[in-house]
Amino acid sequence: MHAECIKSGVHCDVLVGTSLVDMYAKCGDIFESRKVFDYMPERNVVSWNAMIGGYWRNGDAATALVLFDKMSVRTYVTWAEMITGFARTGDTVSARRFFDQVPLEMKNVITWTVMVDGYCSNGQMEMARQVFEAMPQRNHFVWSSMISGYCKLGDVKEAKIVFDRIPVRNLVNWNSMISGYAQNGFCEEALKAFENMQAEGFEPDEFTVVSVLSACAQSGLLDVGKDIHNMLSHERIKLNQIVLNALVDMYAKCGDLINARLIFDEMTERNSACWNAMMSSMAIHGQCKEALELFGRMEDSNEKPDEITFLSVLSACAHGGLVDEGMELFSKMQKKYGLEAGIKHYGCLVDLLGRAGRLREAYALVKSMPMKPNDMVWGAMLGACRIYMDMEMTEQVAKDISTQNSNNQSGDNSHYVLLSNIYAASDRWEKAERTRMDLVNEGFQKTPAHSAFMPCGA
Q1: pLDDT of 111-144, one tens digit each?
Q2: Using CA atoms, how far apart are residues 149 and 121, in angstroms rounded to an integer?
Q3: CB 55 within 8 A of CB 47
Q4: Rounded to two decimals, what is the model's pTM?
Q5: pLDDT tens-digit profile of 373-395?
Q6: ∠ at Cα 150 (92, 136), nearest 5°?
Protein backbone atom coordinates (compact mmCIF):
# COMPACT_ATOMS: atom_id res chain seq x y z
CA MET A 1 0.00 0.00 0.00
CA HIS A 2 2.87 2.37 0.86
CA ALA A 3 4.56 1.54 -2.44
CA GLU A 4 1.33 2.28 -4.34
CA CYS A 5 1.11 5.65 -2.58
CA ILE A 6 4.63 6.51 -3.72
CA LYS A 7 3.89 5.39 -7.31
CA SER A 8 0.79 7.53 -7.51
CA GLY A 9 2.51 10.48 -5.81
CA VAL A 10 -0.03 10.84 -3.00
CA HIS A 11 2.51 9.97 -0.30
CA CYS A 12 3.27 13.70 0.02
CA ASP A 13 -0.30 14.40 1.06
CA VAL A 14 -0.43 15.17 4.79
CA LEU A 15 -3.46 12.93 5.35
CA VAL A 16 -1.87 9.95 3.58
CA GLY A 17 1.47 10.52 5.34
CA THR A 18 -0.21 10.67 8.74
CA SER A 19 -2.12 7.46 8.00
CA LEU A 20 1.15 5.71 7.09
CA VAL A 21 2.81 6.94 10.30
CA ASP A 22 -0.11 5.59 12.30
CA MET A 23 -0.23 2.29 10.38
CA TYR A 24 3.47 1.48 10.83
CA ALA A 25 3.37 2.42 14.53
CA LYS A 26 0.32 0.24 15.21
CA CYS A 27 2.02 -2.65 13.39
CA GLY A 28 5.03 -2.31 15.71
CA ASP A 29 7.48 -0.90 13.12
CA ILE A 30 8.29 2.37 14.88
CA PHE A 31 11.49 2.83 12.86
CA GLU A 32 9.58 2.91 9.55
CA SER A 33 6.90 5.07 11.14
CA ARG A 34 9.49 7.68 12.14
CA LYS A 35 11.09 7.46 8.71
CA VAL A 36 7.78 8.37 7.05
CA PHE A 37 7.23 11.13 9.60
CA ASP A 38 10.67 12.69 9.00
CA TYR A 39 10.24 12.66 5.19
CA MET A 40 6.78 14.28 5.25
CA PRO A 41 7.07 17.64 3.46
CA GLU A 42 4.19 18.97 5.51
CA ARG A 43 3.01 17.93 8.96
CA ASN A 44 0.04 19.02 11.00
CA VAL A 45 -0.76 18.52 14.68
CA VAL A 46 -2.51 15.21 13.86
CA SER A 47 0.77 13.90 12.35
CA TRP A 48 2.64 14.82 15.53
CA ASN A 49 -0.05 13.21 17.70
CA ALA A 50 0.12 10.01 15.62
CA MET A 51 3.91 9.85 16.03
CA ILE A 52 3.77 10.50 19.78
CA GLY A 53 1.04 7.88 20.19
CA GLY A 54 3.16 5.45 18.18
CA TYR A 55 6.14 5.86 20.50
CA TRP A 56 3.94 5.31 23.55
CA ARG A 57 2.42 2.16 22.06
CA ASN A 58 5.90 0.82 21.38
CA GLY A 59 7.19 1.60 24.88
CA ASP A 60 9.44 4.55 24.05
CA ALA A 61 8.39 7.18 26.60
CA ALA A 62 11.60 9.22 26.29
CA THR A 63 11.23 9.92 22.54
CA ALA A 64 7.51 10.62 22.95
CA LEU A 65 8.42 13.28 25.52
CA VAL A 66 11.09 14.79 23.22
CA LEU A 67 8.55 15.11 20.40
CA PHE A 68 5.98 16.61 22.76
CA ASP A 69 8.46 19.31 23.82
CA LYS A 70 9.22 20.11 20.16
CA MET A 71 5.58 20.71 19.25
CA SER A 72 4.68 24.34 18.57
CA VAL A 73 0.94 23.64 18.54
CA ARG A 74 -0.85 21.15 20.74
CA THR A 75 -4.45 19.98 20.99
CA TYR A 76 -6.38 18.20 23.72
CA VAL A 77 -5.53 14.95 21.87
CA THR A 78 -1.82 15.66 22.38
CA TRP A 79 -2.31 16.04 26.11
CA ALA A 80 -4.54 12.98 26.25
CA GLU A 81 -1.85 10.90 24.48
CA MET A 82 0.75 11.94 27.07
CA ILE A 83 -1.53 11.32 30.06
CA THR A 84 -2.59 7.92 28.70
CA GLY A 85 0.98 6.98 27.82
CA PHE A 86 2.34 7.63 31.31
CA ALA A 87 -0.63 5.87 32.91
CA ARG A 88 -0.08 2.76 30.75
CA THR A 89 3.47 2.51 32.07
CA GLY A 90 2.15 2.75 35.64
CA ASP A 91 3.57 6.25 36.15
CA THR A 92 0.37 7.92 37.36
CA VAL A 93 2.40 10.66 39.09
CA SER A 94 3.73 11.94 35.73
CA ALA A 95 0.31 11.42 34.17
CA ARG A 96 -1.25 13.62 36.86
CA ARG A 97 1.48 16.23 36.44
CA PHE A 98 0.65 16.52 32.73
CA PHE A 99 -3.08 16.55 33.48
CA ASP A 100 -2.58 19.48 35.85
CA GLN A 101 -0.64 21.33 33.11
CA VAL A 102 -3.40 21.01 30.49
CA PRO A 103 -4.48 24.52 29.43
CA LEU A 104 -7.96 25.36 30.69
CA GLU A 105 -9.43 25.67 27.19
CA MET A 106 -8.24 22.11 26.38
CA LYS A 107 -9.29 20.48 29.65
CA ASN A 108 -12.41 18.84 28.27
CA VAL A 109 -14.26 15.61 29.07
CA ILE A 110 -11.65 13.58 27.14
CA THR A 111 -8.65 14.76 29.17
CA TRP A 112 -10.60 14.28 32.42
CA THR A 113 -11.67 10.80 31.32
CA VAL A 114 -8.16 9.57 30.41
CA MET A 115 -6.89 10.72 33.82
CA VAL A 116 -9.66 8.84 35.64
CA ASP A 117 -9.09 5.78 33.45
CA GLY A 118 -5.35 5.95 34.12
CA TYR A 119 -5.93 5.75 37.86
CA CYS A 120 -8.54 2.98 37.43
CA SER A 121 -6.21 0.92 35.22
CA ASN A 122 -3.57 1.06 37.95
CA GLY A 123 -5.97 0.16 40.76
CA GLN A 124 -5.75 3.61 42.40
CA MET A 125 -9.46 4.00 42.96
CA GLU A 126 -9.27 6.67 45.67
CA MET A 127 -7.42 9.01 43.32
CA ALA A 128 -9.71 8.03 40.46
CA ARG A 129 -12.74 8.86 42.60
CA GLN A 130 -11.35 12.29 43.51
CA VAL A 131 -10.84 13.25 39.86
CA PHE A 132 -14.15 11.63 38.86
CA GLU A 133 -16.13 13.62 41.44
CA ALA A 134 -14.44 16.85 40.31
CA MET A 135 -15.39 16.38 36.65
CA PRO A 136 -17.60 19.18 35.32
CA GLN A 137 -19.27 16.71 32.97
CA ARG A 138 -19.02 12.95 32.41
CA ASN A 139 -19.32 10.66 29.41
CA HIS A 140 -20.37 7.01 29.25
CA PHE A 141 -16.76 5.83 29.07
CA VAL A 142 -15.70 7.37 32.40
CA TRP A 143 -18.67 5.74 34.19
CA SER A 144 -17.61 2.37 32.77
CA SER A 145 -13.98 2.98 33.77
CA MET A 146 -15.02 3.54 37.38
CA ILE A 147 -17.23 0.43 37.42
CA SER A 148 -14.48 -1.74 35.90
CA GLY A 149 -11.86 -0.28 38.24
CA TYR A 150 -13.82 -1.18 41.36
CA CYS A 151 -14.69 -4.63 40.00
CA LYS A 152 -11.03 -5.40 39.28
CA LEU A 153 -10.33 -4.80 42.97
CA GLY A 154 -13.28 -6.99 43.95
CA ASP A 155 -15.32 -4.07 45.28
CA VAL A 156 -18.52 -4.96 43.46
CA LYS A 157 -20.67 -3.11 46.00
CA GLU A 158 -19.01 0.24 45.21
CA ALA A 159 -19.18 -0.54 41.49
CA LYS A 160 -22.94 -1.01 41.80
CA ILE A 161 -23.26 2.31 43.67
CA VAL A 162 -21.49 4.06 40.77
CA PHE A 163 -23.62 2.17 38.23
CA ASP A 164 -26.84 3.26 39.96
CA ARG A 165 -25.74 6.91 39.72
CA ILE A 166 -25.49 6.88 35.90
CA PRO A 167 -28.21 9.26 34.66
CA VAL A 168 -28.61 7.60 31.25
CA ARG A 169 -26.98 4.22 30.71
CA ASN A 170 -25.73 2.74 27.46
CA LEU A 171 -24.78 -0.83 26.52
CA VAL A 172 -21.13 -0.34 27.52
CA ASN A 173 -22.17 0.61 31.07
CA TRP A 174 -24.34 -2.50 31.34
CA ASN A 175 -21.53 -4.68 29.96
CA SER A 176 -19.08 -3.29 32.53
CA MET A 177 -21.45 -4.13 35.39
CA ILE A 178 -22.39 -7.60 34.10
CA SER A 179 -18.72 -8.43 33.42
CA GLY A 180 -17.75 -7.20 36.90
CA TYR A 181 -20.35 -9.44 38.50
CA ALA A 182 -19.24 -12.49 36.49
CA GLN A 183 -15.52 -11.93 37.10
CA ASN A 184 -16.10 -11.76 40.85
CA GLY A 185 -18.34 -14.83 41.02
CA PHE A 186 -21.62 -12.95 41.50
CA CYS A 187 -23.33 -15.11 38.89
CA GLU A 188 -26.92 -14.60 40.04
CA GLU A 189 -26.45 -10.85 40.02
CA ALA A 190 -24.86 -11.01 36.55
CA LEU A 191 -27.86 -12.88 35.14
CA LYS A 192 -30.30 -10.55 36.90
CA ALA A 193 -28.49 -7.51 35.49
CA PHE A 194 -28.70 -9.12 32.04
CA GLU A 195 -32.47 -9.45 32.43
CA ASN A 196 -32.76 -5.83 33.57
CA MET A 197 -30.65 -4.67 30.64
CA GLN A 198 -32.98 -6.39 28.19
CA ALA A 199 -36.02 -5.02 30.03
CA GLU A 200 -34.65 -1.51 29.39
CA GLY A 201 -34.61 -2.25 25.67
CA PHE A 202 -30.89 -2.90 25.12
CA GLU A 203 -29.84 -5.66 22.73
CA PRO A 204 -26.82 -7.68 23.92
CA ASP A 205 -23.58 -7.73 21.94
CA GLU A 206 -20.62 -10.13 21.91
CA PHE A 207 -19.20 -8.71 25.16
CA THR A 208 -22.52 -9.14 26.98
CA VAL A 209 -22.88 -12.73 25.80
CA VAL A 210 -19.35 -13.71 26.87
CA SER A 211 -19.92 -12.38 30.42
CA VAL A 212 -23.34 -14.05 30.75
CA LEU A 213 -21.99 -17.38 29.47
CA SER A 214 -19.15 -17.10 32.00
CA ALA A 215 -21.73 -16.67 34.78
CA CYS A 216 -23.59 -19.75 33.51
CA ALA A 217 -20.34 -21.75 33.39
CA GLN A 218 -19.37 -20.82 36.95
CA SER A 219 -22.79 -21.63 38.41
CA GLY A 220 -23.50 -24.74 36.29
CA LEU A 221 -26.68 -23.26 34.79
CA LEU A 222 -26.69 -25.34 31.61
CA ASP A 223 -30.32 -24.57 30.70
CA VAL A 224 -29.73 -20.82 30.93
CA GLY A 225 -26.55 -21.23 28.89
CA LYS A 226 -28.50 -23.11 26.22
CA ASP A 227 -31.07 -20.31 26.13
CA ILE A 228 -28.27 -17.82 25.52
CA HIS A 229 -26.88 -20.07 22.77
CA ASN A 230 -30.30 -20.24 21.10
CA MET A 231 -30.64 -16.47 21.40
CA LEU A 232 -27.48 -16.00 19.34
CA SER A 233 -29.18 -17.34 16.22
CA HIS A 234 -31.97 -14.74 16.53
CA GLU A 235 -29.90 -11.74 17.56
CA ARG A 236 -27.45 -9.96 15.29
CA ILE A 237 -24.44 -11.17 17.24
CA LYS A 238 -21.34 -12.27 15.40
CA LEU A 239 -20.13 -15.73 16.39
CA ASN A 240 -16.48 -14.70 16.62
CA GLN A 241 -13.73 -16.65 18.32
CA ILE A 242 -14.34 -15.06 21.73
CA VAL A 243 -18.06 -16.00 21.71
CA LEU A 244 -17.34 -19.53 20.47
CA ASN A 245 -14.67 -19.94 23.18
CA ALA A 246 -17.22 -18.86 25.78
CA LEU A 247 -19.74 -21.40 24.46
CA VAL A 248 -17.20 -24.22 24.58
CA ASP A 249 -16.20 -23.20 28.11
CA MET A 250 -19.84 -22.99 29.27
CA TYR A 251 -20.87 -26.38 27.89
CA ALA A 252 -17.66 -28.00 29.11
CA LYS A 253 -17.89 -26.66 32.67
CA CYS A 254 -21.58 -27.57 32.84
CA GLY A 255 -20.70 -31.16 31.92
CA ASP A 256 -22.24 -31.19 28.41
CA LEU A 257 -19.13 -32.41 26.62
CA ILE A 258 -21.08 -33.45 23.52
CA ASN A 259 -22.18 -29.90 22.68
CA ALA A 260 -18.80 -28.52 23.77
CA ARG A 261 -17.04 -30.88 21.37
CA LEU A 262 -19.49 -30.14 18.52
CA ILE A 263 -18.80 -26.41 18.73
CA PHE A 264 -15.07 -27.02 19.21
CA ASP A 265 -14.82 -29.25 16.11
CA GLU A 266 -16.74 -26.74 13.96
CA MET A 267 -14.41 -23.86 14.82
CA THR A 268 -12.12 -22.82 11.99
CA GLU A 269 -9.70 -21.07 14.35
CA ARG A 270 -8.88 -22.03 17.92
CA ASN A 271 -6.67 -20.22 20.41
CA SER A 272 -5.00 -21.74 23.46
CA ALA A 273 -7.93 -20.74 25.72
CA CYS A 274 -10.30 -22.87 23.63
CA TRP A 275 -7.99 -25.89 23.55
CA ASN A 276 -7.40 -25.57 27.30
CA ALA A 277 -11.13 -25.35 28.13
CA MET A 278 -11.82 -28.53 26.16
CA MET A 279 -8.90 -30.49 27.64
CA SER A 280 -9.60 -29.33 31.18
CA SER A 281 -13.24 -30.40 30.99
CA MET A 282 -12.27 -33.80 29.59
CA ALA A 283 -9.86 -34.29 32.49
CA ILE A 284 -12.49 -33.30 35.07
CA HIS A 285 -15.09 -35.64 33.56
CA GLY A 286 -12.78 -38.65 33.36
CA GLN A 287 -12.05 -38.58 29.63
CA CYS A 288 -8.33 -38.66 30.29
CA LYS A 289 -7.11 -40.45 27.15
CA GLU A 290 -9.31 -38.22 25.00
CA ALA A 291 -7.68 -35.18 26.66
CA LEU A 292 -4.23 -36.50 25.73
CA GLU A 293 -5.36 -37.18 22.17
CA LEU A 294 -6.61 -33.61 21.96
CA PHE A 295 -3.26 -32.40 23.26
CA GLY A 296 -1.60 -34.28 20.41
CA ARG A 297 -3.90 -32.51 17.95
CA MET A 298 -2.97 -29.17 19.51
CA GLU A 299 0.73 -29.94 19.06
CA ASP A 300 0.08 -30.71 15.38
CA SER A 301 -1.76 -27.40 14.96
CA ASN A 302 -0.19 -23.95 14.88
CA GLU A 303 -1.19 -23.22 18.49
CA LYS A 304 1.60 -23.58 21.03
CA PRO A 305 0.68 -25.16 24.40
CA ASP A 306 1.04 -22.87 27.42
CA GLU A 307 1.30 -23.41 31.17
CA ILE A 308 -2.46 -23.86 31.54
CA THR A 309 -2.46 -26.50 28.78
CA PHE A 310 0.08 -28.60 30.66
CA LEU A 311 -1.83 -28.15 33.89
CA SER A 312 -4.92 -29.58 32.17
CA VAL A 313 -3.16 -32.61 30.66
CA LEU A 314 -1.17 -33.34 33.84
CA SER A 315 -4.46 -33.27 35.74
CA ALA A 316 -5.89 -35.70 33.17
CA CYS A 317 -2.93 -38.02 33.73
CA ALA A 318 -3.42 -37.85 37.52
CA HIS A 319 -7.13 -38.69 37.23
CA GLY A 320 -6.46 -41.49 34.75
CA GLY A 321 -3.42 -42.98 36.50
CA LEU A 322 -1.26 -42.38 33.42
CA VAL A 323 2.07 -42.07 35.19
CA ASP A 324 4.49 -42.54 32.30
CA GLU A 325 2.54 -40.14 30.10
CA GLY A 326 2.46 -37.57 32.89
CA MET A 327 6.20 -37.77 33.51
CA GLU A 328 6.86 -37.44 29.78
CA LEU A 329 4.59 -34.39 29.52
CA PHE A 330 6.26 -32.72 32.51
CA SER A 331 9.64 -33.21 30.86
CA LYS A 332 8.36 -32.00 27.48
CA MET A 333 6.91 -28.86 29.04
CA GLN A 334 10.34 -27.72 30.16
CA LYS A 335 12.66 -29.15 27.52
CA LYS A 336 10.64 -28.81 24.31
CA TYR A 337 8.53 -25.74 25.02
CA GLY A 338 10.79 -23.92 27.50
CA LEU A 339 7.97 -23.37 29.99
CA GLU A 340 8.73 -23.04 33.68
CA ALA A 341 6.83 -25.45 35.90
CA GLY A 342 4.89 -23.76 38.68
CA ILE A 343 3.68 -25.03 42.04
CA LYS A 344 0.43 -26.30 40.47
CA HIS A 345 2.31 -28.40 37.92
CA TYR A 346 4.43 -29.95 40.68
CA GLY A 347 1.23 -30.53 42.68
CA CYS A 348 -0.30 -32.44 39.76
CA LEU A 349 2.82 -34.56 39.40
CA VAL A 350 2.93 -35.31 43.14
CA ASP A 351 -0.74 -36.26 42.99
CA LEU A 352 -0.09 -38.48 39.95
CA LEU A 353 2.76 -40.37 41.63
CA GLY A 354 0.88 -40.60 44.92
CA ARG A 355 -2.28 -42.04 43.36
CA ALA A 356 -0.13 -44.65 41.63
CA GLY A 357 1.38 -45.70 44.97
CA ARG A 358 4.82 -44.34 44.21
CA LEU A 359 4.98 -42.40 47.46
CA ARG A 360 8.77 -42.39 47.75
CA GLU A 361 9.14 -40.81 44.30
CA ALA A 362 6.40 -38.30 45.11
CA TYR A 363 8.12 -37.31 48.36
CA ALA A 364 11.50 -37.02 46.61
CA LEU A 365 9.88 -34.70 44.08
CA VAL A 366 8.43 -32.54 46.88
CA LYS A 367 11.85 -32.20 48.51
CA SER A 368 13.55 -31.33 45.20
CA MET A 369 11.03 -28.67 44.13
CA PRO A 370 12.56 -25.24 43.42
CA MET A 371 9.85 -23.62 45.57
CA LYS A 372 8.37 -24.39 48.99
CA PRO A 373 5.50 -26.89 48.84
CA ASN A 374 2.10 -25.37 49.48
CA ASP A 375 -1.10 -26.79 50.98
CA MET A 376 -2.12 -28.42 47.71
CA VAL A 377 1.16 -30.36 47.45
CA TRP A 378 1.09 -31.54 51.07
CA GLY A 379 -2.59 -32.41 50.68
CA ALA A 380 -1.77 -34.62 47.69
CA MET A 381 0.95 -36.36 49.68
CA LEU A 382 -1.31 -36.99 52.69
CA GLY A 383 -4.11 -38.14 50.41
CA ALA A 384 -1.80 -40.76 48.92
CA CYS A 385 -0.63 -41.79 52.41
CA ARG A 386 -4.25 -42.32 53.41
CA ILE A 387 -5.04 -44.44 50.34
CA TYR A 388 -2.04 -46.73 50.86
CA MET A 389 -1.94 -46.45 54.68
CA ASP A 390 1.79 -45.76 54.64
CA MET A 391 2.30 -44.72 58.26
CA GLU A 392 6.04 -44.18 57.95
CA MET A 393 5.55 -41.69 55.15
CA THR A 394 2.61 -40.12 57.00
CA GLU A 395 4.84 -39.42 60.01
CA GLN A 396 7.53 -37.88 57.79
CA VAL A 397 5.05 -35.66 55.94
CA ALA A 398 3.41 -34.62 59.23
CA LYS A 399 6.82 -33.59 60.58
CA ASP A 400 7.56 -31.53 57.44
CA ILE A 401 4.17 -29.80 57.60
CA SER A 402 4.64 -29.00 61.27
CA THR A 403 8.10 -27.52 60.63
CA GLN A 404 6.90 -25.44 57.70
CA ASN A 405 3.84 -24.17 59.56
CA SER A 406 5.88 -23.19 62.63
CA ASN A 407 8.23 -21.18 60.39
CA ASN A 408 5.45 -19.49 58.43
CA GLN A 409 2.91 -19.20 61.25
CA SER A 410 0.31 -20.45 58.79
CA GLY A 411 -1.19 -23.64 57.54
CA ASP A 412 -4.24 -25.36 56.19
CA ASN A 413 -6.47 -26.92 58.86
CA SER A 414 -7.49 -29.66 56.43
CA HIS A 415 -4.08 -31.26 56.98
CA TYR A 416 -4.86 -31.76 60.67
CA VAL A 417 -8.21 -33.34 59.80
CA LEU A 418 -6.64 -35.61 57.19
CA LEU A 419 -3.86 -36.64 59.55
CA SER A 420 -6.39 -37.42 62.29
CA ASN A 421 -8.40 -39.55 59.87
CA ILE A 422 -5.29 -41.48 58.79
CA TYR A 423 -4.40 -42.21 62.42
CA ALA A 424 -7.97 -43.23 63.20
CA ALA A 425 -8.12 -45.57 60.19
CA SER A 426 -4.96 -47.33 61.43
CA ASP A 427 -6.41 -47.65 64.99
CA ARG A 428 -3.98 -45.07 66.40
CA TRP A 429 -6.73 -43.40 68.38
CA GLU A 430 -4.46 -41.56 70.77
CA LYS A 431 -2.59 -39.83 67.93
CA ALA A 432 -5.87 -39.10 66.17
CA GLU A 433 -7.22 -37.37 69.29
CA ARG A 434 -3.97 -35.48 69.85
CA THR A 435 -4.03 -34.20 66.25
CA ARG A 436 -7.62 -33.02 66.73
CA MET A 437 -6.55 -31.23 69.92
CA ASP A 438 -3.70 -29.54 68.00
CA LEU A 439 -6.32 -28.28 65.59
CA VAL A 440 -8.29 -26.72 68.44
CA ASN A 441 -5.22 -25.34 70.21
CA GLU A 442 -3.99 -23.66 67.01
CA GLY A 443 -7.31 -21.82 66.86
CA PHE A 444 -8.46 -23.54 63.68
CA GLN A 445 -12.06 -24.43 63.07
CA LYS A 446 -12.94 -27.30 60.79
CA THR A 447 -14.24 -25.88 57.56
CA PRO A 448 -17.64 -27.48 56.94
CA ALA A 449 -18.12 -29.23 53.63
CA HIS A 450 -20.92 -28.18 51.32
CA SER A 451 -22.59 -29.52 48.21
CA ALA A 452 -24.73 -28.00 45.53
CA PHE A 453 -27.27 -29.46 43.14
CA MET A 454 -29.55 -28.13 40.44
CA PRO A 455 -33.12 -29.52 40.63
CA CYS A 456 -34.66 -30.65 37.36
CA GLY A 457 -36.65 -27.90 35.71
CA ALA A 458 -35.18 -25.18 37.94
Answers
A1: 999 999 999 999 999 999 999 999 999 999 999 9
A2: 7
A3: no
A4: 0.81
A5: 888 888 888 888 888 888 888 88
A6: 65
